[in-house]
Amino acid sequence: MGIRESRLQPPWLRAAIAILPVVAASLLGQWATYPNLAPWYAGLAKPWFNPPNWIFAPVWTSLYLLMAYSVWRILKAPGNDADRRTALMLFFVQLALNALWSWLFFGLNNPFTGLMNIVPQLLVILATIDRFRRLDRSAALCLAPLAAWVAFAALLNFEIWRLNG
To answer: How far apart are alpha carbons 39 and 14 in whole angstroms?
Structure first.
């Protein structure tokens, strides 16, 4: 189905297109993360600014909700279909990198491979924000907290790698 055709679909279908991939990325990330929190992650040296573990679930839940809402807005926004395809392609690339990070960092118990993912992930998030802004400013603004959190996570990932390398 083309992008133009998807805008003609009922709102529940656009919502499913926006929500299901985000939920899938969240679940894939959790499957790699939770089994490795203890003892592996718990045993790592961490920087002073490492947040407590309980903060990650509410932050990521909020970020995933904002991501899904942002994509939903892009799917229904008027504009050039080629621009929309590019914006959505960037969004889904960053979403895949997001899920993959958990497998590289936690699944492989390897902060370095996580770092090799999170830096390009942040760049793709920034490119996504730029492309979303051209179609729907609110959709782009919904991704700003994601960019801020992933920038923080990249610094945290770097420090964990540095302290444990």
So the answer is: 41
- Give the per-residue pLDDT at 102: 97
CA separation for the pair 61, 53 (Å, rounded): 14
pTM over 0.90: yes
Give the model confidence (pLDDT) of 54-76 as tens digits: 999 999 999 999 999 999 999 99
- First vs last Cα of the chain: how many Å apart? 47
Are the CB atoms for 156 and 59 separated by under 8 Å?
no
Taking Cα atoms as reference points, which of 63, 19, 58, 164 lies closest to residue 105? Answer: 164
Domains and CATH numbers, the chain: 3-164 (1.20.1260.100)
Report the amino acid identity of residue 104: L
Read off the tokens for 43: 């045993």
Q: Give the model's pLDDT for residue 13.
A: 86
Is residue 60 within 8 Å of 108, Cβ to Cβ?
no
